[in-house]
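dumping this here before i forget
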Amino acid sequence: MKKTIAILLVLVIGMVGVWAGAYDDSRTLSLTTTVTDLATLYITSARQTTYTTTEPDEISSFVFVVDGPGVIENVGYVSVFSNLRAGYTLAYTANVMTSGTGAAARYIDYSVQIGSDANTLITTDAYNATPVLTGTKNIKVVSSQTATQVFSEEIVITIDENFDTAVAGEYTGTIVFNFVAG
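structure:
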């Protein structure tokens, strides 16, 4: 009888492990989201250092009246907010200030500097041996990103001294900033 009770005890203890396994269960919660692309270019009144969901203050006017040679004060900052995984390229094109067309065209030169001297572009008029009436320069090339980045550099425009010897007329030049996703 003791053997029978011992065998039954062994079987009951052994079966508890089998039955206990039948009651183990788990549930999985899945979390998903989509982060939208952030690729914004602004001309701001102040340097941007961090990204917020509030748009920064852009400059009040994109038209600057030139009244002589020298530096144009307080132009603004070219600012980019980006979270593009494949990065981006920021470039700008400067077109010489021109009055008239064809053979009657006359020019006023200027330079544009974005941040460091390495990002300076200078227009030169058609009277030079190698004129640069328009030019394009990359400011920032980002090959990939692992988080949202902020780029913000001051825009400095300097009007050439040939302003003082320019013929009468209305002169117009443009600076175009171009943001291209990686």
